[in-house]
Amino acid sequence: MKGKIYVYLKKQVLDPQGKAIENALKSLGFEEVKSVRVGKFFEIETDSSFSGSAKERMKEYCKKLLVNGVIEDFEVEAVEE
Amino acid sequence: MKGKIYVYLKKQVLDPQGKAIENALKSLGFEEVKSVRVGKFFEIETDSSFSGSAKERMKEYCKKLLVNGVIEDFEVEAVEE
């Protein structure tokens, strides 16, 4: 099974890294840039030695390790094989 | 205009962060995990004060600032408005 997990800061959380990139782009002459927000993603491959759906399993990875639920949200894209 | 840029390590480049996450997931009991690779993405909003297509403009951001072409590849998803 292959899947992708996208993790991003909640809308109401400040993103200083994004802000820094926005300023850097502007100073390079890309003055049209209005906002930048940064997130991360995980490409995960597994074998099939687990029960239940791939998507649910990926959500468990998020809750147990990959995502800080206080400040982050996530989306899961699972490709079952 | 809104767009997303996905940046990930080239296949042949080692990803120690991904490897660490893979081991952490396994030690939490998710023993089915075979590989994890980590990437980042940027959500960018701009106004329309530039010439040319949004996608081409985003590629310029990548080449000038966001992507290290030696070890990273990128994909651009532009939503012109």
Keywords:
3 strands, 81 residues, Mth169, Chain: A, homodimer, three-stranded antiparallel β-sheet, alpha+beta, elongated
Question: Topology of this protein?
Answer:
The structure is a homodimer of 81-residue chains.
Chain A: E1 2-9, H1 16-27, E2 33-46, H2 54-66, E3 72-79
Antiparallel strand pairs in A: 1-2, 1-3
* CATH topology category name of chain A: Mth169, Chain: A
* CATH architecture identity of chain A: 2-Layer Sandwich
- What's the gyration radius of chain A in Å? 16 Å
Which residues of chain A form runs of ≥5 with pLDDT under 50? none
What strand order characterises the main sheet of chain A?
Answer: 2-1-3
The largest pleated sheet of chain A is described as: 3 strands, antiparallel
Main interface: chain pair and counts: A-B, 34 and 34 residues
The pLDDT mean of chain A sits at 95
- Please identify the structural class of chain A as seen in this structure: alpha+beta
Helix share of residues of chain A?
A: 25-40%
Q: What is the CATH C-level name of chain A?
A: Alpha Beta
The secondary-structure element order of chain A is EHEHE
Strand content of chain A: 35-45%
- Tally of DSSP β-strands of chain A: 3
Query: What characteristic shape of chain A results from the CA principal axes?
Result: elongated
CATH superfamily (homologous) name of chain A = Phosphoribosylformylglycinamidine synthase subunit PurS
Number of domains of chain A: 1
